[in-house]
Amino acid sequence: MPPKAQAAGKGRGPAKRKLAEEFPPEEVLTDTSKKSWKLGAPIGQGGFGLLYLANENSSKTVGADAPYVIKVEPSDNGPLFSELKFYMRAAKPDLIQSWMTSHKMKYLGVPKYWGSGLHEKGGKRYRFMVMDRFGTDLQKKFEETGRRFPRKLVLQLGLRLVSFVVIKLDILEYIHEHEYVHADIKASNLLLSHNNPNQVYLVDYGLAYRYAPEGVLKEYKEDPKRCHDGTIEFTSIDAHKGVSPCRRSDLEILGYCMVQWLCSKLPWEDKLQDPLYVRDVKLQCRDNVSEFMSKCFSSQDKPDELQKFMEEVKTLSYTDKPAYQKLRSILEAGLKSIGAKDDDTLEFSSVVSSNGAGPSSSAKTSKRKKVVDYKEESDDEVDGSPAKKKRSLKKKAVKEMKTAGPKKTATTPKNTAARPKKALVEMGTQTTPGLKRGRGRPKKTQNH
């Protein structure tokens, strides 16, 4: 039986996780369809998983040009099992290819699922998944460019994620049409293709949630025990309230990402250790999007298209299907306003004032903690360590939520938030977003 996802809330800190042991080169894994895969060198490491170069089993050694990677973790860990459910339902190569063909698409930024299974070695069992190989992630690009992206690039990335016209269906629309929401969109989960740096893929489906199983939409239900899922600076207001994610959640998260990519820093980033403060500021920003944009940009550099994008998302109810075509039109209008168009070329360059962003301090923000989220920490944080402390502080935050009520601006004890996610080790060209999973998967909501 697969491990059950932990409920968020009481003692939400992760159970002790076993670290993945490194396999020797040429180890052969056999998936559930009896197809064999040969491992090459490990190229990335997360909290409790390893990522290897891989190829179909043959007499040849797996070289640096291998087209696949295999993610491996101990079988009694839960993150990869959760991610597999999405891949097996919505990311099989023939399903993705069918969409691409019928909509005349060059590519779809969803990784293909090539196989999975269990592997035994030394009396231990490991779960693995085979997927396409990718290049670097956008978080690295973001840091390299002084924590600002050009305005054209930001709008292009938005289009890649939401575009939906007669001949094109991209990432979020595809995921949503297959009954899932991603719930953890951010630069480190957007990877460039290994072979084509102008193609972007959304990875890490450990928090992906099936919002409409068999077409039946989940109902809105707040649960104080399940608050703040996802990455704290980007997560949706729904998640802050303990509500399972929906389609508007993905679009809200994307809106925060685009604003940060363009102006470098969100208004609540100095207090990420206080999730209730972050929630309340986001509520204020939703109530007055214009004021939110004024906090992020100077008046002459305010990108009208992002304000319109967020205003449109604001109108969505929990169960509404977004108007993807309208959202695309808003972003395309933004490109037109700066004399650009979506030419399928992503340009990552150092950004100055012509970026369309207001003033900020890149030097200052580069020194702060890069990513603070509520994702499970690795196994080295146990036995009276920060992970244990985080569980205790999380209980306090939940208790305060109950007593303060959603309308009060409550504060939590200092250092309430999870410790910043450790930097994943990169070896070679492949990065490893997704090996450290988000907190326990949200429970299915029940009808009132």
From TrEMBL:
Residues 403-418 have a biased composition (Low complexity). Keywords: ATP-binding, Cell cycle, Cell division, Cytoplasm, Kinase, Mitosis, Nucleotide-binding, Nucleus, Serine/threonine-protein kinase, Transferase. It catalyses: L-seryl-[protein] + ATP = O-phospho-L-seryl-[protein] + ADP + H(+); L-threonyl-[protein] + ATP = O-phospho-L-threonyl-[protein] + ADP + H(+). Residues 37-335 form the Protein kinase domain. Its main location: cytoplasm. GO terms for molecular function: ATP binding; protein serine/threonine kinase activity. InterPro entries: CK1_Ser-Thr_kinase, Kinase-like_dom_sf, Prot_kinase_dom, Protein_kinase_ATP_BS, Ser/Thr_kinase_AS. Residues 1-27, 350-448 are annotated as: Disordered. One of its GO terms (biological process) is cell division. Belongs to the protein kinase superfamily. CK1 Ser/Thr protein kinase family. VRK subfamily. This is Serine/threonine-protein kinase VRK1.
